[in-house]
Design brief:
It is built from two helices and ten strands; from the N terminus they run ααββββββββββ. By secondary structure, the chain is mainly β. It has one domain.
Length: 189
Amino acid sequence: MFPNKGDYAGVPLNPEGRRVADAWDPAKDQTAGEQCKGYGAPAIMRIPGRVHIVWQDDNTLRLDTDAGTQTRAFRFSSAAAPAGPATWQGSSTARWERAGRGAGAGSLTVVTTNVRAGYLRRNGVPYSENATVTEYFDVAPHPADGQVLIVTTVVEDPRYLQRPYIVSSHFKKEGDGSKWEPSPCTAAW
């Protein structure tokens, strides 16, 4: 289900990033209480699972994941996000991008900084605390009826990446929350 240790094909790691990925030891992460390193903002939307999105308040959209039971807060206020220590989900600012005439509702752009160092993949492929994550959330019709949420993620990290790492994920809208199964982070794969 997840790539093996040392499998970082498609990730533009620099030599330091490859060195860190090759040295990964999931048992050390588990023992150190760092089992959520693969569930941070740069990676969470790539982990198989479900998302639940609601308005937390007038200026904050909350996204919960059942994989790793993570919660992200997308702030729409022009005020700076609260300062504090880095977290797995970091500090995210959001804005709506208007679509062209007749193109639909547009997309949501989210920029996240102040993340704890973690993994782009649950096999030890690193990102640093200097990573910036830019995400584009778009809704599209599903060919078999319904809707799909498409999330395009761009990770920039001057410490471990040679260039931006770009991936996309798709989530099909479900009729209800009956399949919602939150599970804690795990370092094992």
